[in-house]
Specification:
The chain has a two-stranded antiparallel ribbon. It is elongated, with a radius of gyration of 16 Å. Helix 1 crosses helix 4. The protein is mainly α and 126 residues long. Helices cover 72% and strands 5% of the residues. The protein folds into two domains: 65 residues, Arc Repressor Mutant, subunit A, CATH 1.10.10; 53 residues, Diphtheria Toxin Repressor, domain 2, CATH 1.10.60.
């Protein structure tokens, strides 16, 4: 799956959690893309079965889209937490996590979760 597709799915997930709904205009504002660009990508994601669009134009993730969105978002949170723990500035930690979340293998994610388990658990309690 392309980085772009993963970013769209993650952003839809985040906006849905934040606002309770997602429209193309919400994605355009969040991602800083034009409305036509968003519309083209939504058409592609719908054709791939990753999203659904209702009669009001509300976008939701299909089960497979939700699975990918959650995986990418979890990676983002994990990497951000680790970077912050080792002293990386917050803005850089978030940007770097956003870049790496698309390229890191599941094996590495699992190893990082195991290695940093105590840190991750402590961060989630706060």
């Amino acid at each position: 799956m392309s980085e772009s597709t993963e970013m769209y799915l993650e952003t839809i997930l985040i906006l849905k959690e934040r606002n309770g709904y997602v429209r193309s205009i919400d994605l355009a504002h969040e991602m800083h893309y034009s409305k036509p660009t968003i519309s083209q990508q939504m058409k592609r994601l719908k054709e791939k079965g990753l999203i659904e669009i209702d009669e009001k134009g509300h976008i939701s993730l299909s089960p497979s889209g939700l699975s990918v969105g959650k995986m990418i978002y979890e990676r983002h949170q994990l990497l951000t937490t680790i970077f912050l723990h080792i002293g990386v500035a917050e803005d850089i930690a978030r940007k770097d996590a956003c870049r790496l979340e698309h390229y890191i293998s599941q094996e590495s994610v699992t190893a990082l979760k195991t290695y940093f388990h105590d840190i991750i658990e402590t961060d989630q309690e706060v």
